[in-house]
Amino acid sequence: MSGTVEERMGRAVEAFGKDLGGFRTGRASASLVEHITVDHYGAKTPLNQMAGISVPENTLLVVQPWDPSAIPAIEKALNNAQLGMTPAVDGNIIRLRVPSMTEERRKDLVKQMGKRTEEARIEIRSARRDEQEAIKKLEKNKEIGEDDARRRLEALQKATDAKTAEIDRMAASKEREVLEG
Fold it and tell me: Which domains does the chain possess?
């Protein structure tokens, strides 16, 4: 099995993990806002590179810019991100209260996570398919033997199963978190 297929599968799992971090669970988490880009002095900068983000309590996020002159730009970016939270400027910090979620909203989030989970599985299967084709081509061109091809295909399937199981574990954990609130 080539390193590139392992890298592709690993990147799919990593991207899925980042996506899950952006799903709001009713609890405050820095991952809800750290990816937001702020237009400051003509440069688009991720929020986590220009401010400290802390979670002093379960339903509160505090954003403390390192440069207080960036507060208006950060406030604008947070409003434009449509997070369902209104930023409140309090001196040199911005507070974001995370509202509790309705049961309907929780079910909707679980449905969205299900779609993203399936997309991640498809990415992994796509990497597997490409590698399978490469192995079969090597076998057809007599560059590897039949036994070697079979071993490689079995190893590929094991890697695919492992990455898919990892995605399923991550999704199940986040789903429990969303439904429990």
Answer: 3-21+102-180 (1.10.132.20), 30-97 (3.30.1360.40)
